[in-house]
Amino acid sequence: MSKTYRIKDIAAMAGVSTGTVDRVLHNRGKVSIEAREKVDKVLKEIDYHPNLIARSLALKKRYRFITVTPQYAPGEYWEAINEGINRAEEDLFSYNVEVERLCFDQYDKSTFDNLIPKILKKDCQGVVIATLIKESVLELTRKLDENEIPYVFIDAQLKDTDCLAYYGTHSFDSGYMAGRLMGDQIRIDEDIALFRFIRKGEFSSTQVSNREEGFRTYLEGTGHTGRLVTLLLHADDDDNNKQLIDSFLKANRQIERGIIFNSRAGLICDYLQENPLGQHMKLIGYDVLEPNVKYLQSGLITHLLAQRPEVQGLHSIKALFRHLVLKEKIEKVNYMPIDILIKENIPYYNNYI
């Protein structure tokens, strides 16, 4: 039968004072290496697990985390990220953890910049950051470092920062894999369409840039001699996009394959399906959203690459909790699987969290 051990019991077994045991358990104050090793040895022998719920409630301490993610509509990619965040908040309710959500327009850099002073004024113990807008994120992290507030990255990793952890795919490798999938479908001299959405402020998403770099690197390594023809579309101008697609298809009738490096493959397929010149084209896209799945099943999309967004959201919040409350060491880089989906296996895909 399991036994409940008091601090005084652990102290007697380790041959140290109760104060020393208290400092080890709560990771505070100075403890000699010898004393810490004695206490740790006893804790391992008795398989000690503190009653963290009781501790948190007794201290009446609340932990507020802030998430900084793009605005989203129902069914969009960032809704899935937030489903994982919601799940984490529910799981940690008993530990007095609450999450405040702040959102920005991913196509307008200024909306992220405007959040930075608001975040710094808030009483929070940790921040989860979607890293789409690199320069703005780096500015925020510099401020968080100055205030000794831990932060976790999702979506894409940024080097040369002091982030607590990253949860997401290896963006370059994801694009490299997309290049291989494309290379298996085309002739070595075949042209490829790259669809990209324009953002305000002349910047590109960190994730998208890294994926495109990986994609280009793979094709260059195969000796691909065809052109990569980029079409820039507008995030919020549907009528203009239709005209741009029409002009592009008329000028590039030879192109039969295309790729988009974010979750909007379904929207591109909508445009292509409406245009007689685009119905022969096939795409590679990202993320398991309903419109993307529909076109994967119809054959207009040949492959979807998925990155388990719910899992990213869940673990980003729990990493802050484990670091601040459980005092655990957190693995800094946590890559998600890069799932490759085709119409034959999409019915069986389930992103468990």
How is this structure best described in words?
By secondary structure, the chain is an alpha/beta fold. 44% of the residues lie in helices and 18% in strands. It is built from 14 helices and twelve strands. It has helices spanning 7-14, 18-26, 33-45, 52-59, 77-91, 109-113, 115-121, 134-146, 171-183, 206-222, 238-251, 265-274, 290-298, 309-324, and strands spanning 63-70, 97-104, 126-130, 151-154, 165-168, 192-198, 228-234, 257-260, 282-286, 301-306, 333-335, 339-341. The strands form two sheets. Strands 2-1-3-4-5-11 form a six-stranded parallel beta sheet, with helices on both faces. A six-stranded mixed beta sheet has the order 7-6-8-9-10-12, sandwiched between helices. Helix 5 (77-91) links the parallel strand 1 (63-70) and strand 2. It is elongated and about 80 Å long. The mean pLDDT is 90.
Compile the SSE list and pairings:
Blueprint: H1 7-14, H2 18-26, H3 33-45, H4 52-59, E1 63-70, H5 77-91, E2 97-104, H6 109-113, H7 115-121, E3 126-130, H8 134-146, E4 151-154, E5 165-168, H9 171-183, E6 192-198, H10 206-222, E7 228-234, H11 238-251, E8 257-260, H12 265-274, E9 282-286, H13 290-298, E10 301-306, H14 309-324, E11 333-335, E12 339-341
Parallel strand pairs: 1-2, 1-3, 3-4, 4-5, 5-11, 6-7, 6-8, 8-9, 9-10
Antiparallel strand pairs: 10-12
